[in-house]
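Researcher: For the annotation table, I need structure tokens for DUF2934 domain-containing protein. Please keep the output clean. Sequence:
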Amino acid sequence: MVATALSRTVKPVPYDEVETVPPPPDPDLLHALIAEAAYYRAEKRGFAGGGELEDWLEAEKEVLEMQEKLSIPTPD
């Protein structure tokens, strides 16, 4: 009898040894998270004009750092 992939015995892997990789976040979700973080930054400074770009860039940095800490791959 010829062994095939379907007839081969496979040793089960314990759950705690399974390596899982989360899917990359949806780009729309990533944008929404950055927008929300930027909003809260603007709120902290009383919504004074002129700091919108800085709020966005700092929020983007914060969200991407959190993404990296959680080992979530970046979307292509």
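Researcher: And a one-line annotation?
Model: The mean pLDDT is 81.
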